[in-house]
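Sample log: Ribosomal RNA small subunit methyltransferase A.
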Amino acid sequence: MNVKAKKHLGQHFLTDENIAKKIVEGLDFQPYQYVLEVGPGTGVLTKYLLEKPTETYVAEIDTESIEYLKLHYQKLENKHFTGDFLKINLSDVFSGEVAVIGNFPYNISSQILFKIIENYQQIPEMVGMFQKEVAERTAAVPKTKDYGILSVLVQAYYDVKYLFTVHENVFNPPPKVKSGVIKLTRNRKEGLEGNEILFKQIVKTGFGQRRKKLSNALKSLDIPEVLKSHAFMDKRAEELSVEDFINFTQEWKAAKN
């Protein structure tokens, strides 16, 4: 049987086996027991994952793909199909830590990254292919045009490494843009404990008007009086590191207590 790529699911099937191997080899496969592949399609990554010592699960919502995988990869027992990655409760499926991998649908890229952040305690690492622009934004550093909300929020929990670029001609059907493969390695920054909601609020509000100094950009928030003349407030969001945002959040919380 053949699997037809479905536009509404954002499917573009990778056809280059060498690239598939490179993506899989991006994972360390230790010390965790499980790997969850998101959107396996026709199994171009799955076949290499099943050669590894870890236990491979797949998150797939396309019934045609599921039937294809069951037919061609019998190592994938029925229990290894978990459904919609964005909706599953990882702790219900996995008794321990689980790495995540996939050629992710472009239309839910950010949602996938935020799901990983929300479950950072259970996800030690991820290797994934995204639209190149999203991959670059995730890995971006301060004082660059790509650095923004996504960069800061992901890098608060993971070290991000841009691995390589993938061109359009190795997919069926070819996407209209290039892709980028990145690796996330868990390294949650100190100072987030109990401050995560405020941290995210400051980051999102600060970058909401990224060309303005934070003294203006954060006006809609209830800034503690003692922090209004803080050096942080004289900067633009794009000039500040992840640690700068975390430290300012800690000071804000302390000023409110």
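Observation: The domain at 7-186 is CATH 3.40.50.150 (Rossmann fold).
Observation: The longest strand covers residues 158-166.
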